[in-house]
Amino acid sequence: MTESGDRLRADETRARLLDAAVLAFAERGFHGATTRDITSIAGLSAAAIYVHHRSKEELLYQISRTGHLDTLHCVQTAIASSDNPTEQLIALVRDFVIHHARAHTVARVINYELAALSPEHQREIKDLRHTIDAEVRTLIEHGVAQGCFDNPNPQMAAVAVLSLGIDIARWYRDDGAWQPEDLGDHYVDLALRIVGARR
Amino acid sequence: MTESGDRLRADETRARLLDAAVLAFAERGFHGATTRDITSIAGLSAAAIYVHHRSKEELLYQISRTGHLDTLHCVQTAIASSDNPTEQLIALVRDFVIHHARAHTVARVINYELAALSPEHQREIKDLRHTIDAEVRTLIEHGVAQGCFDNPNPQMAAVAVLSLGIDIARWYRDDGAWQPEDLGDHYVDLALRIVGARR
To answer: At what angle do helices A104-112 and A3-32 cross, to 10 degrees?
Structure first.
């Protein structure tokens, strides 16, 4: 085994543990899931977790950090895709909604288990969330300033648009009536209504 | 101690255990909270729980059943308060939102721990949820039929209105910027936009 082969295998194991932790946390909650639940889902020995991750909280932090960075990237890419606030909002809501429907298990964990993070990790994740909120609020404020949107309370509109997307993670089922893309279209319409987009 | 005094005291203990279970489930999740966590919050001996409730799941079921019946009652009362769909929706959203902000801890438990209920209890609670959903969908359908609302998809509008209210339980903080009543007013405006109410 070469050194780079060892590294590759360690990376794979680390990723397997993260995937297993998402399932275990979603199923039993952070406090209800034991490290043994996680290694058992990953098909590894109980000790494997501490070879690759410092603690159960560290796993939650990695899942949460990656998830929030993905969401921030998706929001910023949508905003960069156009100069027109209506087009920006359409792209943003469609991507945000499709992501929360497809990745509903991860989304549940990172939105419902914030309180289980260490204070330091909580601060870091809350900063990321504030950045995401601010991007959406600024977009809506720009739309209002340019006369594309009509809403006296851009802050509340931003809360509502994000809240609708996040709550999809609670109720979405893979075998339900709606595909992620259909939901994306419907929620674009809802978001345009909320901001009062001129059509 | 008279017999009715005994009964009163037993009722009080049962209620104290339910309140303690709400706190323990909200803090550590259903699977993470032990029966000892619950009796300790209630200030009772570890054995007290089985004198008054059959199991931890039975506590969750009682909390969930009461919470859903309260919500159904609040929805039906709002609808009965007027013949006009716009007035009905205003009353419904205001009450639903204020309730989810004030009772955010209970609302988190009953909305996020459904999967922890026994199959039989899950069926009963899901029936209650379908009844609540159907009340809101029917209200919006009536509003569209009467020309008060303009939305091609009353079912999706009903999902969104309820979803916005439920998600308040995730993010609402007692020491945050908004009082439950302010939030009620803001969300009435959002709901009227979503259904396309003529103003």
So the answer is: 60
